[in-house]
Amino acid sequence: MKKPPIAIIGGGLSGLYAAYLLEQRGYHECVLFEARDRLGGRILSAVQEDNLASGNRFDLGPSWYWPDFQTEMDGVVAQLGLVSFEQFELGDQVVEPPNKEPPVRMRGYVNMPPSMRIAGGMAALIDALRSRLKTTQIITGAQVRSLRILENTADINSELEVSCDGHQTASHKVAHVLLALPPRLAQHSIRFEPALPTALATEWAATPTWMAPHAKYVAVYSQPFWREFGLSGAAQSARGPLAEIHDASIPEGKGALFGFFGVAAAGRDTVDKNTLLTLCRQQLVRLFGPAAATPEIEFLSDWAKEVFTATPADFDGTGEHPEAPAATATSSPWQDRIIGVGSEWSPQFSGYLAGAIEAAHLGVQHVLKANTKHSV
Which residue of 14, 51, 206, 309 is most buried, as measured by CB atoms within 10 A? Predict the structure, then answer.
């Protein structure tokens, strides 16, 4: 029996993994829409341009996963043939008090179970999944504006309307739509005809988008010089602008430090990028010494300014991991037609990379069950 066409909105980890699972189950008429002109969503691994072939990619989005309890994620990493390694944590950490008090060197700690990174950055996950998709049609630069259910339709077909800036609107008739984007963003940016049930729309709108209020800074050096002084590269600061810092070095490659900003999105918005970079360098010098003053290259990603991640409601958020909302309507014309598969819909790991894997798997299982029910 021919499998019905399916649309996937979002080309991050959950969207690509859902497409991968669907192809494995014989669904060869899938179309994936990504609003950005790149795949990956909140996964973004920056490249040092003069080291394109060396694997020197640095994560400006999520960096870690924990295979000891995120076993499905670990299985995907192994299945795709990717190499993982432990986050470097050996040595002392530095703690910076407020009010211009000097930093204090303290005994470091090692996370158990260990935090794991992927060689080539988390974008290696995206590259590996993309390379394995054979039949899925992928359209980038395509922001989905509306979803509309066809009138007088006896089966579960619906019509997906896609519009791209500067391009003519295209329509695609599909049986299901997998929403591989944050619930709040879906509710904010997509027009549903008929409207979503009020309770569901309210729940989606109230679900914080993980990472949306955050910003991340990376400084790259020729080598991890701090290790020579017995430092792990980890630091905590009550002064800022970075509140939490970690070693982001590449094994047998470049040294790097990354930090999460402790300044809220509204505060960052009052300072230009060059000033922020200067303040970050000055802080690294206070924490790790004068060698930190001259990185080879710097990267800064402010996710609160990413319109395909954050909404106005996320701007003042605290960035906590959300509680998973309902993934579909239980009683409305939208039941079994739209299914949330973004990371926030994960029951166990909402917001995490492992959550994207879990939510995609559950969403595909929902599609299989719905099609079996409607084919009987």
Answer: 14
Following DSSP, what letter does each residue of 128-191 receive, concatenated? HHHHH-SS-EEEES-EEEEEEPPTT-SSS-EEEEEE-TTS--EEEEESEEEE-S-HHHHHHH-E
Strands of 242-247's sheet in order across: 104-106, 92-96, 231-237, 242-247, 255-261, 215-221, 297-302
Say which residue, 294 or 156, is predicted with more confidence.
294
What pLDDT, in 10s, does the model give residues 239-291? 999 999 999 999 988 999 999 999 999 999 999 999 999 999 999 999 999 99
Residue 138 near residue 34 (C-beta atoms within 8 A): yes
Phi, psi of 53 (to 5 degrees): -95, 0
Between CA 366 and CA 34 the distance in angstroms is 22
Between CA 345 and CA 332 the distance in angstroms is 19
Sort strands 57-59 and 45-47 into parallel, antiparallel or unpaired: antiparallel
Provide the CA 231 distance to its chain's centre, in angstroms.
29
Q: In the numeric block, which tokens belong to residue 79?
A: 């299945």
Smallest CA-to-CA distance from 139 within 6, 27, 309, 11 is with 11
pTM of the model: 0.94
Binned at pLDDT 50, 70 and 90, residue 70 comes out as very high
CA distance 22 to 360: 10
Q: How confident is the model at residue 231 (pLDDT cuts 50, 70, 90)?
A: very high
In three-state secondary structure terms, 238 is coil
Please, are residues 186 and 345 in contact by the beta-carbon 8 Å criterion?
Answer: no
**What's the burial of 288, exposed, middle or buried (CB within 10 Å: 0-12/13-18/19+)?**
buried
Three-class DSSP category at 50: helix
Q: Give the Cα separation of 112 and 354 in Å (integer).
A: 17
Query: DSSP string covering 166-183, please?
Result: TS--EEEEESEEEE-S-H
How far, in Å, CA of 22 to CA of 18, rounded?
6
